Amino acid sequence: MFLNVQELQLRKLPIAEVFHPGAIDFFDAQLRQISDLEVTGAAELREATMEIRVRGSLSVRMEADCDRCLEAAVFPIAVDFDLIYRPLPTALAEEVILTREESEIAFYRGLGLELADLVREQVLLALPMQRICRPDCRGICPVCGQNRNLVSCHCRTGWQDDRWAALRDL
């Protein structure tokens, strides 16, 4: 769905979109959408400033490889958003100091913005920084490579300083 400025000048646009798995490219091969991504809300134009305000919510279930054990980890995401997009200025000033409110504003170019781009950004921001399958994930053994959640290996993982090995033999 394209949020067109000309159409927004006429009326407020309701948003009720469903993106099936694979419809949005998240630019991450390890990140997979496993349920429909449902977006509801509305978009409106502030005529005086030509700002597009998009308010709504989204819900989806994403899957990624666990950062510790490499097994599949599922992340349910439910996000409410209230975003403001300004038209990209044609000539940028040399140096501008932004206020806190201005730092939360994004820009659009041309006749409007694509809803899929907005949704992709919100999903990526909602994902945790460390993607783990569960809080007590034990990860992979650095010696034998087995998943410690499934197998209790007895590998010795302590570090040894081999520079003194010759002296131990004396």
Structural write-up:
Strand 6, helix 2 (100-103) and strand 7 (106-108) form a beta-alpha-beta unit. It is built from 4 helices and 8 strands, in the order βαβββββαββαα. Strands 2, 3, 4, 5, 6 and 7 form a 6-stranded mixed β-sheet that branches. The protein has a two-stranded antiparallel ribbon with strand order 1-8. It is an alpha+beta fold and 170 residues long. The N and C termini lie far apart (77 Å). It folds into 2 domains: 2-137, no CATH class; 138-170, no CATH class. It is 15% helix and 35% strand.
- The chain-level structural class is alpha+beta
Fraction of residues in H or I helices: 10-25%
Low confidence ranges: none
Main β-sheet: number of strands, strand sense, barrel status?
A: 6 strands, mixed
**Overall radius of gyration:** 24 Å
| Estimated share of beta-strand residues | 35-45%
Query: What's the tally of helices?
Result: 4
**Alpha carbon gap, first and last residue:** 77 Å
Number of domains: 2
Average per-residue pLDDT, rounded, comes to 87
Report the principal-axis shape. elongated
Helix-strand pattern? EHEEEEEHEEHH
Work out the number of β strands. 8
